[in-house]
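Weekly modeling sync, notes
Attendees: S.R. (lead), two postdocs, one rotation student

Agenda item 3: backlog of single-chain predictions. S.R. asked that every request posted to the team notebook include the full sequence so nobody has to chase files. The rotation student volunteered to paste the first one in as an example of the format we agreed on. Action items at the bottom.

Example entry:
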Amino acid sequence: MNDYDRIRTFIRSYAESGSSMINELYSDALKNDIPVIREDTREFLRVVIRMKCIESVLEIGTATGFSSIFMAECIGENADILTVEIGEEDYKKACENIKRFNFENRIKAVNADAVTFLKEELGNEKAYDLIFIDAAKAQYGKYLELCLPHTHKGSVIICDNIFLDGKVFESHFLVEKRDRTVHDRMRSFIEDIKNDDRLDTAVLAIGDGVTISYVL
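Predicted structure, as returned to the notebook:
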């Protein structure tokens, strides 16, 4: 175990347990190899939501609904979450989970390709307090550009899993050929978001790596 793994194990040992239903949903996701936000990322997200008094969220990448349900619990009755998922089976499962939590009035799930949805279907009349991006990693640059019109000054943008399980630290030629496109695009994305004068961005070693940006 390297030092980073030891640090994360230590931090996770202090993670707050959520409701029994949330914990059951998390366990089910792990058992079925469904992507789900990690415990330390969850802690970070909860504190950001409470510090910024966030109510409205646009999420790119629903999976089976764990993160949107978790955020809805953190926000409370005023939660207004729109989450977009391309996978039909994941979308159906997410809708089941949202209904199981009685969160239909807090979370609206959409089954669509996020790029097409953001370009063609999501109107510009609403700005969100938080954008949470956790979908196809090679598309993060596109998602960011298409989400920015749906923010306001002071909005927060969080992008998860930017370390690609450590692959992003390697040089292009040390990464397997099948992973080089996503590796190169994520490297470019991190550089671009750090140098974007519309945003104030930090790269943090939380979970599998996150960026957090404040919209200027």
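Discussion: group reviewed the output briefly. The first strand starts at residue 56 and ends at 60.
Action items: rotation student to repeat for the remaining queue; S.R. to check formatting next week.
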